[in-house]
Design goal:
binds zinc ion, alpha/beta, seven-stranded mixed beta sheet, binds nicotinamide-adenine-dinucleotide, six-stranded mixed beta sheet
Length: 369
Amino acid sequence: MKIRAAVLEEFGQPLAVQEVDLDEPKAGEALVRLAACGVCHTDLYTASGADPTGYAPCVLGHEGAGVVEKVGDGGRGLVAPGDHVVTLFAPECGECVHCLSPRTNRCTAIRDMQGLGLLPDGTTRLQREGEPLRHFMGTSTFAEYAVIPEIALAKVDPEAPLAGCAPFACGLSTGIGAALYTAKVEAGSTCAVFGCGLVGLGCVIGCRLADAGRIIAIDLSEQRLDEARHHGATDTRVAGEDTVEWIREQTGGFGADFTFEATGNVNVMRQAAESAREAWGLATMCGVAGKGETLDIVPRLLITGRRVAGSSFGGVKGRSQVPGLVDRWLAGEIDVDALVTDRLALDGVNDAFQAMERQEGIRSVVEFD
Ligand SMILES: NC(=O)c1ccc[n+]([C@@H]2O[C@H](COP(=O)([O-])OP(=O)(O)OC[C@H]3O[C@@H](n4cnc5c(N)ncnc54)[C@H](O)[C@@H]3O)[C@@H](O)[C@H]2O)c1
Ligand SMILES: [Zn+2]
Ligand SMILES: [Zn+2]
């Protein structure tokens, strides 16, 4: 079929929205009609050429939500036509060594092919004039339709508006999950969140859902700190060189029980590690650092009981846990509308990148007719 899609032709150039060909889903794959797709930093990072693992040409987009139209014959029957789904760049096969462990969401089933921009059988369903066009993060959801592995689709409540489901496909679940599943924030604890974009606000929300006693939000922007307060931060502080010292002062000299980094800046990662509490503080890193950058930590901080964790997609097991997060939104526990600050058509995707560079709004969502 012919579909309209936003193609990354060349790094550093605007995406080109154009018609491409999409083949039928094979066994284990589903055809999804996208209703919405959030515009995430990772799309911009790849489009800019900064991502060392990036490739072009490909169809970008990975924060999708839509409806299953068709399922390839001979699959596992995990989804059916009519199902409302959130796309998962982090799939959940439910069978691999990591899926079988409660400790991680790092499914190994299809990652080698996914990393190459191919579907699990080593081919693409996307083409242009007979030439294969690669998939991005196993999803390629800046498109009217996508063919996606069944294990990379989370079935959600059809009552949930799909534009609001899109942020659960990446940024929002990443933040909430970092608090609930990676850090496992305990009730009554003191948390500090560095960076209040969608991921950091998700951390704030996750800490609130875990009944944290105190949630300190730190950002360079007062406006983002206002957003953090709206989502549950109890204390806010404009970021500076003295942030670590201030957090220690605020916590009887010890530091916060749980800290979260959601900026991608390695200096902020260091602050998050240093402001974690002596004896048991856990610092969770969500941000993606630049190529070749390293995180500098004085080992004594670790010997005295602080721990550092990394979190990919918030440790969320996509098919099992995303539906429950969407339910908490529908139950009124998460204000998704406040996070979706712009809605636009696919042709506006480059404008959304520019707004992101200007730090305007929290999340832009592309909506398809
Ligand atoms: N781990 C994952 O699976 C995953 C998933 C999605 C995104 N990410 C990464 O998470 C990070 C955050 O993503 P986002 O979409 O929320 O980004 P964003 O740019 O919207 O938000 C970052 C926030 O950090 C603030 N900030 C910048 N410098 C700061 C400083 N020195 N101190 C405190 N705050 C500072 C900015 O003002 C901004 O509000 C990015 O690095 C992104 O690539 C990771
Ligand atoms: Zn993303
Ligand atoms: Zn798996």
